[in-house]
């Protein structure tokens, strides 16, 4: 866990939220009021109203609005965390809470601090308690806190450790429940957390698939939106990598792979790479490759397999999917020959045999 001395020694960009020396001085004094990061988060998420209000009030007093608040907000916007000033005095508590969480997210810019925070079970538990408490209330001002907490969790999930693995089912379960939220920003971030946490635990993948994650991701992919699509297709890729049920549900939910084929035309290489990977995983399902006859799939995969994308995973995933397609349904080879793509297919086979 991060020590006070470690926090006091922080320098930009880890202190990006503190736009001027006065704010930094206030924050250093504030740090001396808490033992460590987990105590701060625990205080803010405490079930004891008096404890929580005291933590919020102290934070708001130390980090109240100043002349440089616009600069501070601009700096915060460069991270995953996004905080907003209160619209009225009635919102000051929730705004202070969101601001505190935003500072925690900014601290994550320092790799050493992020590692220590991510290894702290109490910090994760506090984040989950905040999600539970804010979600139960469901008002706009509390949603800002949920939004900030999800951003903090996304930052922490840049790390991988045993604590995250142990809590993966709980974390993914909270995110699954947030997919029904009416705030699109929260839904997008919940999918973002899923796209990172599911990779940490096969059990979390299993539970998410049982909970209908595949149908939900297909629905969000149909709705569009590049950020949401990027997270959603990554989530599907993780699920189909290890779950036969997920593969079968993609085939069932995405008729003739219309959604995945559309994603293969995306200008975002990350989306294309994950779409090709997901498609390749699903082609092991009986009948899946046959359903793609007379479609544009061969041309799309051939374009990416022989292309010059900056991400080599795009070519590799497309080549693997192309090879699996022709193995599962040899009639696709005829179209491949027409497109003079046999050399690329032969090259792709080495990926198929090693995958």
Quick structural summary:
With 355 residues, the protein is mostly helical. 70% of the residues lie in helices and 0% in strands.
Stretches where pLDDT is under 50 for at least 5 consecutive residues are: 1-24, 26-36, 62-92
Number of strands: 0
Could you tell me how far the N terminus lies from the C terminus, measured between alpha carbons in angstroms?
A: 39 Å
Order of helices and strands: HHHHHHHHHHHHHHHHHHHHH
Major β-sheet, in short? Answer: none
Shape: elongated
Radius of gyration: 23 Å
Average pLDDT rating: 79
Instruction: Return the structural class.
Output: mainly alpha
Q: Please tally the helical runs, counting DSSP H or I stretches of 4 or more residues.
A: 21
Q: What's the number of structural domains?
A: 3
- Helix percent reads over 70%
Percentage of β-strand residues: under 5%
Explain the overall architecture:
This protein has 355 residues and is mostly helical. It folds into 3 domains: 1-159, no CATH class; 168-253; 264-355. 70% of the residues lie in helices and 0% in strands. The protein has 21 helices and no strands. It has helices at residues 4-8, 21-31, 37-44, 49-62, 69-77, 92-107, 111-118, 121-137, 140-156, 162-178, 184-197, 202-210, 213-223, 226-242, 244-253, 258-263, 269-282, 297-305, 312-328, 332-338, 342-354. α3 (37-44) packs parallel to α8 (121-137), α14 (226-242) packs parallel to α17 and α17 (269-282) packs parallel to α19 (312-328). The longest helix has 17 residues, at 121-137. It is elongated and about 75 Å long. Mean pLDDT is 79; it is low at 1-24, 26-36 and 62-92. InterPro entries: ARM-like, ARM-type_fold, TTC12. One of its GO terms (biological process) is axonemal dynein complex assembly.
């Amino acid at each position: 866990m991060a020590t006070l001395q470690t926090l006091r020694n922080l320098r930009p960009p880890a202190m990006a939220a503190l736009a001027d020396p006065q704010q930094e001085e206030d924050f250093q004094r504030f740090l001396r009021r808490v033992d460590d990061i987990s105590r701060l988060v625990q205080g803010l998420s405490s079930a004891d109203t008096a404890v929580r209000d005291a933590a919020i009030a102290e934070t708001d007093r130390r980090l109240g609005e100043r002349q440089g608040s616009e600069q501070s907000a601009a700096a915060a916007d460069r991270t995953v965390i996004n905080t907003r000033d209160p619209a009225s005095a009635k919102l000051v508590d929730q705004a202070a809470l969101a601001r505190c969480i935003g500072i925690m997210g900014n601290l994550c810019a320092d790799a050493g601090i992020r590692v220590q925070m991510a290894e702290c079970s109490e910090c994760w538990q506090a984040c989950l308690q905040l999600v539970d408490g804010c979600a139960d209330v469901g008002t706009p001002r509390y949603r800002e806190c949920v939004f900030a907490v999800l951003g903090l969790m996304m930052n922490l999930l840049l790390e991988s450790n045993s604590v995250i693995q142990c809590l993966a089912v709980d974390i993914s379960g909270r995110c699954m429940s947030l997919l029904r939220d009416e705030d699109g920003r929260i839904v997008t971030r919940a999918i973002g957390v899923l796209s990172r946490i599911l990779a940490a635990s096969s059990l979390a993948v299993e539970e998410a698939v049982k909970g209908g994650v595949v149908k939900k991701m297909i629905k969000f992919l149909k709705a569009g939106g590049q950020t949401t699509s990027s997270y959603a297709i990554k989530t599907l890729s993780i699920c189909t990598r290890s779950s036969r049920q997920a593969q079968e549900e993609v085939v069932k939910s995405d008729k003739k792979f219309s959604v995945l084929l559309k994603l293969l035309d995306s200008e975002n290489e990350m989306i294309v790479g994950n779409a090709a990977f997901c498609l390749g995983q699903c082609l092991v399902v009986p009948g899946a490759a046959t359903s793609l006859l007379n479609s544009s799939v061969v041309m799309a995969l051939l374009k990416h397999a022989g292309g010059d994308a900056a991400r080599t995973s795009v070519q590799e995933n497309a080549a693997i999917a192309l090879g699996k397609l022709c193995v599962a349904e040899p009639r696709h080879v005829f179209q491949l020959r027409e497109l003079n793509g046999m050399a690329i297919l032969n090259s792709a086979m080495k990926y198929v045999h090693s995958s």
